[in-house]
Amino acid sequence: MSPLARVALAVLLCCSVPARPALAQATLPRSATGQFLSDWVDAVNAGDSATFERLRLRAPGVLLPKPATGTAGSGLVLERVLASDERHVEAVLRGGEPASQRLVVLTTPKGDASRIASFVLVTIPSGRPLDELLVSPEQKQRVLDGASRALREHHVLAEVGSMVADTIQSRAERGAYRSSAAGRYLAELLTTELREISSDRHLGVDSSVPKLPVDFAAPP
What we know:
Blueprint: E1 9-14, H1 32-46, H2 49-57, E2 77-85, E3 88-95, E4 100-107, E5 118-123, H3 137-154, H4 158-173, H5 183-198, E6 203-208
Parallel strand pairs: 1-6
Antiparallel strand pairs: 2-3, 3-4, 4-5
């Protein structure tokens, strides 16, 4: 086993976010991810299996979610767009079976807008505020600082840990993570970048709605 293989970084996003003003945007962006999401919602609502299969071909290796009904009349509608850029979109849908709010996050891989790299659909539990799934700028900074500190202090190769931490912080200063709203997307984005920079697939960031202990060795 290589030294890098012995390293596992877990940065836990405890997404208890103070209430923020509702975002009014309810139009999908004119991007590859925006169009894909629009086509997926239309296909699900119409029970259009042919279109759904075409969409699946654009998402190789991705489990493309499909509401359990699989028939016309699911009634998914776009409630609001939380965040987006040229490579991702985060939005809230309402409807489906059973009727509920759903957080959806889509991403495309770098350099290939024709494919979907990930498609995450999370049902928001009834009575739980959407803000619990979102991260504020302050929380993002704490996550970035925590990831950098963990890399510098615990990576088995100090020079590699410092290099990855410096790269992440440099990207943050250039606004690389500014467009993320959902904790789930921020975790996915950071995981992809950590592994890309370090060539170590054992590094990763996860997100959790229930607040998790900072020190797992401590008693509950």
